[in-house]
Amino acid sequence: MKILAIDSSAQVASAAVVTEQGCLAEYTVNHKKTHSQTLLPMIDEILRMTENEGSDIDAIAIAAGPGSFTGLRIGAATVKGLAMVWDVPVIPVSTVAALACNVAGTPDVVCPLMDARRSQVYTGLYGFQASTLVEYSAAECVGIAAVIDKVNAIGRKTVFLGDADLFADTLAKSVTVPYETAPFHLAKQRAAAVGWLGLSLYREGNYVSAEEFAPTYLRISQAEREREERLTKS
Q1: Is 5 in contact with 62 (CB distance < 8 Å)?
Q2: pLDDT in tens, the chain (234 residues)
Q3: In whole angstroms, what is the distance from residue 4 CA to residue 47 CA?
Q4: For the chain, what are the domain ranges?
């Protein structure tokens, strides 16, 4: 089983080729370039370096959201196009669940935080039983105070990752359980984690066709919100 995995849900752009035996290649860029510039060249490079072609890929796993509206749409368009050409299924993977998988195996509660702007975060609460991901709280878009309330209610040591650095002061003031933040090499989105979780989802039959795939946004975009406000006022 050979999976191409990608994550374009935030500033990080990441692509990987994974199998059940491990990660063959991963290409990650955390820089201010648009994913439309970087994603396809990254995919082309890791396929070339691993001596693979599209015909060697069995499925494509994608961080399907939540996340940046633009990033998710670029990723979706890329994956749908490749999946149609290669005639392979698409494995939608929760962005925050995949982010939690960066620290797979930890005995602690894992809390990914992705800045959603407007004083909100994309988040979820997870744990691991051996190497199996356990969902304590599903992906959602809420204020940081609501996240901290849930963490405190669980009452266990917690690992924060993602954009936790943006909320460092708030966490320090309000989190009442022991906690730590993931080191930088584990803190941000990685396609290898998307692929790792994607393998499990594929075995469970959780995949769709290219035509069926759609990103998960959790809330409407700013452009849609502004349009609704204009309609309300008119």
Answers
A1: yes
A2: 999 999 999 999 999 999 999 999 999 999 877 899 899 999 999 999 999 999 999 999 999 999 999 999 999 999 999 999 999 999 999 999 999 999 999 999 999 999 998 889 999 999 999 889 999 999 999 999 999 999 999 999 999 999 999 999 999 999 999 999 999 999 999 999 999 999 999 999 999 999 999 999 987 655 454 455 555 556
A3: 9
A4: 2-96+189-222, 102-187
Where does 102-187 sit in CATH, by number? 3.30.420.40
Q: How far apart are CA 192 and CA 232, in angstroms?
A: 44
DSSP 8-state secondary structure symbol assigned to residue 56? G
* Degrees, nearest 5: CA angle 77-137-213: 20
DSSP-derived secondary structure letter, 72:
H
Cα separation, 53 vs 77, in Å, equals 19
- Cα gap 135→137, rounded to integer Å: 6
Q: Which fold has domain 2-96+189-222?
A: Nucleotidyltransferase; domain 5 (3.30.420)
Question: Are the CB atoms for 179 and 159 separated by under 8 Å?
Answer: yes
Identical topology for domains 2-96+189-222 and 102-187? yes
Assess contact for 181 and 160: CB atoms under 8 A: yes
CA-based torsion, 16, 21, 22, 23: positive or negative? negative
Q: Whole-angstrom distance between the N-terminal and C-terminal Cα of the chain?
A: 55
> Which phi and psi (to 5°) does residue 87 adopt?
60, 55
